[in-house]
Amino acid sequence: MTRVAMAGKGGVGKTTLAALIIEYISVSDPPVLAIDADANANLGEKLGVEPRSYMSVALDDIKDAPPSVAKHDFLKSRVYRALTEGKGFDLLVMGRPPGKGCYCFAHSVMKDTIGTLAKGYPHMIVDNEAGMEHLSRGTIEGIDVLIVVSDPTVPGLKAATRIRELSEELEISARRTVLMVNSCLEGEEEKIRTMVEERGFRDYVLLPYDETIKRLNAEGLPLQGLEGSKILNVVGRMCERLIL
Ligand SMILES: Nc1ncnc2c1ncn2[C@@H]1O[C@H](COP(=O)(O)OP(=O)(O)O)[C@@H](O)[C@H]1O
Ligand SMILES: [Mg+2]
């Protein structure tokens, strides 16, 4: 079982690349457990599925559930109910973070439940929001591959470097960390490689800017029609090397 987590600042392409990875693996080695851990959830949109429910609904409802032991089972059953089935993958959407009150119990149960759930899948991909919230809170544990996404800019790569350092401090101890530099323009590759290597990234891939992706996003459509594209090619090769 390979657990993969996406990290990176906002708007760099984490969700887009997570969706492309999920789609690749859902064909090569299904089923994939896809987790949308962004409060502003949009992974389902990119994958072309409408989420049935959210983890946050279950966390809210737990207040009304009977005492401790039963609460555990209650939340477990709710997690399974919140799964949305796609072609070769199941999607679990976390939803907005809980409001006031102590959710330590709920979080620990959620962590256990996701851990148990994940055992039924050869691969799990977690799309995160900007920042390291879920990783640092330990909601998602035992990451094998940490994918840091950046745009090909100095501020972007600085943020990526901070995330890499934080992940080392937090002892997330991913087996591998790979940097995906997204939306690279043709002819700028050499310059970008130099910038990346100067910051100490050893394992990285460059992904091209893609007009189709931009257009699909503008129209609110799922990722489709990218067969044979350069970006899918790079994503596929990365999956074969690090995940499959
Ligand atoms: N390689 C790419 N080429 C063109 N547009 C892209 C590419 N990757 C992402 N985008 C666009 O960039 C925006 C942000 O992408 P998104 O995946 O939502 O980022 P994040 O999840 O990191 O916030 C979206 O409009 C998306 O369509
Ligand atoms: Mg996103």
Overall description:
With 244 residues, the chain is α/β, with parallel strands linked by helices. The chain has a single domain, classed as P-loop containing nucleotide triphosphate hydrolases (Rossmann fold, 3-Layer(aba) Sandwich). Helix content is 45%, strand content 18%. The chain has 10 helices and 8 strands. The chain has helices at residues 14-28, 43-47, 55-61, 68-82, 104-118, 133-137, 154-169, 189-198, 211-218, 230-242, and strands at residues 2-7, 32-37, 84-85, 89-93, 123-128, 145-150, 176-184, 204-208. It has an 8-stranded mixed beta sheet with strand order 3-4-2-5-1-6-7-8, with helices on both faces. Helix 8 links the parallel strand 7 (176-184) and strand 8. Helix 1 packs across helix 10 and helix 4 crosses helix 5. The protein is globular, with a radius of gyration of 18 Å. The N and C termini lie close together (9 Å). The mean pLDDT is 89. It binds adenosine-5'-diphosphate and magnesium ion. The site of magnesium ion (MG) has 3 residues, from helix 1. Adenosine-5'-diphosphate binds at residues 8, 10-16, 182-183, 207, 209-210, 213-214, 217, 231.
State the main characteristics:
244 residues, alpha/beta, Rossmann fold, 8 strands, globular, binds magnesium ion
